[in-house]
Amino acid sequence: MKLRADFVQLYRDVHSWVGIIAGLFLFVAFYAGAITMFEEPLQSWASAPVALPPPVSLERTPELLQKALAAHPEARTDYTIAVTPEDAQRGRLTWDGSGGQVHHAPTQVMAAGLDAEGNLVVVPKTPSDAARFVDVLHQQVGLPLPHTPAMILMGIVALLYAIALVSGVIAYLPALVKTLFAVRLGQSVRKRWLDLHNLLGLFSLPFHLVMAVSSVVFAFHGQIFALEHLLFSAPVAGQHGGMQGGRHGGGPGPADHGHGPGGGRDAQSAASVTSAAGASAPVVPGLPHVLPPVLAPTDILALVTRQAPGFVPEVLNYMQLGHGKDVVRVFGYDARYPTRGPTGGFMVLNSRTGAVQSGEYMPGHQPAKFAILTSFFALHFGSFGGTPVRWSYVVLGLAGAFLFYTGNQLWIVSRRRRERQSGVVVETRGTRLLAALTTGCTTGCVAGISAVFCTVPVLPFGGTYGAVSAVYYSVFCLFVGAAFCLPGQRGIRILLGAAGGVTACVPLMLCLHGAHLLRTPEGMGVAGMAALLSAFLFAGAVKHTREI
Question: How far is it, in rounded angstroms, from Cα 404 to Cα 23?
Answer without folding.
Answer: 5
